Amino acid sequence: MSHEVRMLGTGNAFLPHERHHSFLIFDKKHIIDAPPTALLSLRRAGISPSEIETIFVTHLHGDHVFGLPFLLLEKKYISDREGNHPLTIVGSSGVKDRLRQLCTLAFPGSLDDALDNVRFIETDTGVIDGWNWERFRVHHDDAVDPFGYRFEHLDGCSFVHSGDSGPCQNLEDAIQRSQLAVVEMGFPQWVPSDHHHKPDDIQALAERQTNVKLLITHTFIDSPTSSFEPVLTDSFPNHPENVHHLEDGDTWIFQNSEWMQTNN
């Protein structure tokens, strides 16, 4: 059996040139977060919102969830008018109320019925579509309930998504047990905060976890495809071979017991 992880966006909150907000879809129907550029990213990839079955919410910062009202609105009025494609949202105990508030602010009254048809899962572990998943606390702003996720399929395939997090033991423990890890690198080295990974953090992580492929997202670095003056920089650090700095659209496939990048 093959599995697919596709990066629909790789930028941090400040949207470096040629990057949408960090956004991942796996097996073409489960997404991690719903950033403001989510609908745009799905359109660019030719994916209908009606195809999305599950949203895993890492935390409640705007660049990770403010796209949800637009996804629900599109499903209601365009791609799923009959309501034949149910949606599940996985998140911590505060996610349901916060997302209801968000949808009410965005489109008052228009999304009440859409939210009523969403199934919310608040447990720390579960199984969806053959994937055993677990949610673990990470090091970020506690006010937004920050978590990462680890996924392991019944066939043995595994990967981690860090959400937004600086280095922390819970995240490293999950990475150590996995084959692939999608890890954010949201800050340049000079920022005086440990709530995101910086280039030196990724360097150290890669040296400790040499058997894990580290895919870098939520980056502050402009895409090499940009022709504009850099927002901050367009220079990538010289990281070890197991580190892969992602571009929007990059896709990784699990086949023959290994994760490999594809040109798809």
Q: The biggest beta sheet, please?
A: 8 strands, mixed
- Kindly give the count of domains: 1
The H/E string reads EEEHEHHEHHEEEEEHEHEEEE
Q: What is the rounded distance between the termini?
A: 18 Å
Question: Can you walk through the features of this model?
Answer:
This protein is α/β, with parallel strands linked by helices and 264 residues long. It contains seven helices and 15 strands. An eight-stranded mixed beta sheet has the order 6-5-4-3-2-1-14-15. It has one domain (3-255): Ribonuclease Z/Hydroxyacylglutathione hydrolase-like (Metallo-beta-lactamase, Chain A), CATH 3.60.15. A hairpin with a 4-residue loop joins strand 9 and strand 10 (158-161). Helices cover 22% and strands 27% of the residues.
